[in-house]
Amino acid sequence: MRRRPERALIAGLGLLLATGCLAGEPAQLLGSHVLTRPGDPLFGGLSGIEVSEAGDTITLLSDRGSWTRGRLQRDAEGRIVAVDLAPMQPLKGRGEAPLERSRSDSEGLAIAADGAAYVSFEGAARVLRYRDLGGSAENLPVAPEFRRMQGNGALEALAVDAEGTLYTLPERSGGTTRPFPVYRFRDGEWDQPFSLPREDSFLPVGTDIGPDGRFYLLERQFRGLLGFASRVRRFAIDGDSLSPGETLLQTSAGTHDNLEGISVWRDAAGRLTLSLVADDNFAFFQSTQIVEYRIAD
């Protein structure tokens, strides 16, 4: 679809803001790469992303209960030049059958140090554990609060730290001025140690614990015909509390598509990188893309 001149101008200004050329924010655009898999009916709606420590392997999660893994080829500057993806595969339930469609709204993806994968869901709000994403699932306990969440605003984001502690939060907090509760799973139990401050009309769509141990939050703001604006904030975790946080990246509407997933890693030179994936909503006028930024420590 051809972009209107005014939208192109808005996107260009947003790109300047995002790279810090105007606002001085500590983020530098590394590149954007469009993903396609012609003939794969399960491909699309990507909402979760995990990039390996070396930056050469990627795992992607769809919001319709499927996943894929692939290899990334990069140039000398670290920009993605090619992606070799395997066919999408359906997530399984506790047996060998794929998840029921009514329970397959998979949104958040986190891969622990031991290789176990965790997936969070909207609809029937819960978290599943997979020893291997191609295998059967194990249900984690369901916190009572999960059962009261909005069907299309539940566990959108999921992260795991180096010790295997999980963090998840809903896309909607239940009130325009109410902070977003963050739930923690450790020692077989859920608790809710802290909340994230709500700023403007941005909603959380992805989270990760970076190699620096800090909590990274990807947020989205829908601006109608102008498209989506994105923001990334970072917080330090100190026991049961969070630091005030800092904004690393904020784009204007239309700079990128519907960014929903985030993975934070270090390249071979030790530089922190944000890898973000866009959900095309299975719509022909949107695109599936990986967007990457380098950020300061």
Automatic annotation (TrEMBL):
UniProt cross-references to SUPFAM superfamilies, sorted A to Z: NHL repeat
InterPro entries per record: 6-blade_b-propeller_TolB-like, Phytase-like_dom, UCP031900
Gene3D superfamilies: TolB, C-terminal domain
Recorded superkingdom: Bacteria
Record domain Phytase-like: where: 42-282
Protein name stated in the entry: Phytase-like domain-containing protein
